[in-house]
Structures are given as C-alpha cells and as structure tokens.
Amino acid sequence: MNFKVFDGIAYGMLLAVIVGVSVGYVSQETGFYSWDYADYQNYAILVADAFRDSAGEGWEFVRLSLGQQKNALHTLPLLPFLWLGQNSRIGYSVGLAIVYLVPFCLGLGAIAQELPFPYLDRWGRRSRFWFASFSALLIPMTWVPFLRGYPDLGGATLLVWASWLYLRDPRLHRWGSIVGMGVLIGLAILFRRHFAYPALSILLAAALSQGSVEAKAWRPMLGVWLRLAMVGGVALLLMLAIAPDFTQSALTTDFSSRYQRWQLPLGVIVGRTGVAYGWGVWGLALLGWLLSQRWSSRRWRFVGWASLLCVGILLVKLRYGNVHYTLHLTPWLVLALLALLDELQRRWRWGMVLLGIYLTVNLSLGLGLSAANPSAGGLFARSYAPLMRQEHQVLHQLLGRLQDLSQQQQQIALLAASNHLNTSMFNSEQFQQFRDAPPLTLLPVAIFDGGVSPLEMVLMADVVMVATPTQVIGLDEEQVVRSQSQTQLEYLSRAFSYQCAIAQDFRRLPESFELENGITVWLYQRQHPTSARVEAVTREQMSERTPCS
After folding, report:
1. pTM of the model
2. d(CA 500, CA 494)
3. Which of 68, 88, 26, 38 lies closest to 423 in space, CA to CA?
C-alpha cells in the first residue's frame, strides 16, 4: 500500500475515534456545569461573541486578557467550532478534541519515532508513529481533562512537541531546535501558567541526561547546558513580548501561598492520582520505566528524568487534585508503557494482547462507558462518567424559581458550595441557555474561608437558599480543595438549619427541592433586617466555631 494512502487511512481512523468518542460522551451530559467545568467554555463563548460582533472587538478582548492569569489565547483555534456548534458543549468539546487532542497524540507518535526501541524498531518508523499515536488514546487521563471542559491539553501538546524537537537533536546543535523549543515552551506557559513546572522538568531532564561529568565530556556537556539556557531565554523573551504583565506576575507572585487551599495532603494526592489512571497502569508504567533506563540511550535517559521530575513536582510540591494537572504526567506514562510493550514483544507476545485488553477495559471504566465498577483495590481507573444529573428537571424548576426571584429584584444568597450544588452551576446554565434573559441576582457568596466572610452576602440577601445536608467540597469530589477550607460557609448553612439567631430574621418557605444524594434545598425569605447584636454574635461564633445560639 502506498505510504500516503496508509497515513491518510490511519489519520482518518484516529480522527474518527477521537470525534466519535467525544460526541458520544458529551451528548449524554445534561448541563449544569460549574466552576472550571463551565468557566472555560463560557470564556470561549464570550470571545466568540466578541469576534462575531467585529474582528476589532474580538482582538481587543484577547489583547486585554493577556494581562490576566487566565488569558483567551486558547479560545482562538476553537472559534470556528463554537460558531458552527452555536456555542454548544458538543461544539466546544469537538473543537478541543480536534485542535488539541489530535496533535497531542501525533506528537507522542513523533517522539516514538525518535526513541530507540530494541525490538519495536523492526516495525519501522511509520508503524511506530501510528501505534504510539493510538496508544495515547488508551489512557483515561488523555481524555478526561478536555471532556470536563479544560483546554489544558493544548499546553501539554506544545510541551510534547518541544520534547520531540529536543529528541531529534539532543545536543541542540541546530539553532532551529533552540528557537523552536523556546517558542513552544513559552507558548505552553502562556497557555496555562502551571505548565511552567513540566517545562522546567523538560529542561532539567535534558541537562541531566547528557551523561557523566568526565574529564573529556564536561566541555560538550557544558555547551549543551548553555544552549538549554538559551532555550529558556527564548521562552522568557517570547512571554515578555506577548504578555509582559502576566510574565512579571508569574515571576514575582508566591503561588504556593495563594493556592494553598488547593494543596492536598500527600497521601490524598497520591491516592487520587493513582486511581485517576488505575494503579495497574502505574505498576506497568513503572516496570516499563525501569526497563527503559537499562538501555544505553541518552534519549531514554531524558524520558526517565522528565518522568521522575514531573511526578515529584506534582505529587510533592504542587499537590493539586483537579484532573487537568494529570497532563503533567500522561505523556510520560504513555512512553513508559511503550517501553514495556517493546519488552513484551521480545519475551512474551501474548503479554501484549493481555496488556491491550487491560488498557481497553481500564479506559472503558475510566470514561464510565461500562456499567461495571470493579474495585479490585484500585487496579482499574476511577470512573469519570459523563456529567448526567438524574434530577435534571428538578434543577430546571429550581432555576426557574431563581429566575422568578431575580425578576422581582430579590437578592439571593446560596449557602452551598459542593460539586453537587453551587452558585456557579445556576449562573452558568443561565448564561448558556438563557442569554437574552436578565442575569440571576445570585450574590457572590464567599465559598472559602478568608478575608471576606459569607456573612456579608447573607446580611444583604432578601432570600437565602440552604441545603441539607450541608454542601461543602469533600476530598472525594472531582473539583477538590483541602479540608477545613469552608468552615464559615458550613457554619452559616447549619445556622439556618438549626434556627440560630441569624435565621430568626428569615422565614422558611414551604417549598423545597429534592436533589440527588439526599440533598434538599430550602428557601428562607427575609422578614426584617439583622440587628447589630445578632450580626456581632454570629461573627464571633463563626470565627470561634462554637455552637450557635
């Protein structure tokens, strides 16, 4: 068969699988996305609407966003899909899949062409390329971040191709390699700031993989280190040229302190990361990693060091539990599994079949495509099924009630902030489904402990919504924060449930809304203003976490 025909068929199959799975997955979802799962799509819709009004307005929107922590660069390639899909979730997700997932897989295929395999080399470069590209799709966390609405796969794709440039020229003799790596790394960090950590890991891995410091080797090694410094310089100059305010903020802000509430305990983040992929995948990848480090290859040493550094930084330093951070690790797990496959090709070919079956079953479970949910001690991946709400009609009834109250200019405070119930889900649904209607009058209640208390919004509210049991974020939820980060919100919610002093200023309405997981939502209508004495008592009890009176 002609190589061009073969490549065309393989690319068509890859595209068909990616689009087919994306559409099939997202079409099952029932809306009411919240927080990150909604915000990136809503941001992209705003950009698409700005460009729809005029090109000048759109570019001005993007330009102004460059000084923010989350800019609009990721939305630009998605605009045609949003326009064609009429801002729908399917259109947005298909855009993410085609624009970011396809080149991500192809980038891993290109890396597989540059890595020396003792036995898979016999397949030929083209066969290795497509085998690795399709293999990337067998890892659940290749899919989950973008299916949850995160655009971060774009940043991971840029770093994958930066790694490919390095592996083509490990000594960085060509200026094109230096400039190309710098541009891709700089764009990845601009794309999403947290990719600075895997970008640094790539540069350090390249430096550490050069070999031992011997009398005759230190000079060429020093030359490579200097050229790697030039790569970092190119990345920094690019960032300063495109987004100087963002770059200055990224270099001077203490993000560890700012995002401390998202840093999970070590045992929790290790457990969450393990079951995100399935502990079986981790065990097999570790075996492949160990095997690859036995091969005398600078390129595999680079993969080994990059894997080790990315895992160490994510699990020890960052410890963030949301799914998009797994993209720091996914490329290296795919390459480690390819190394294991190479060994199985030599020793036990049936092992390749069994490994393929395990990975396929693990993917099916990880995406919630199978009804089975075997525990098996975490051997298989945690299920990230489509976001379907069985009480979809009840949520729409509750949204309708909020719309009625908003039309009456009633200020509403929702004292709930879990993945199941929060203010964001109603604001997002209103934004996406009722664009022409006035916005909801939901007050911006502080959901985390800090300088601003949620009591401030309760004092302003005409209506307070309270859920029983109390709705705060648990460590087992997908969008997660450290425990004891929402004590003030939790206290106020219980204050209404227990009819404490602050609740006496309100009257519970007879209507209620029954949601999944035994959640009941109640509405409290203000009867009279809160006195200074009740406010002071509530603040004191809330700060001391003492039972209310």
Report:
1. 0.94
2. 8
3. 38
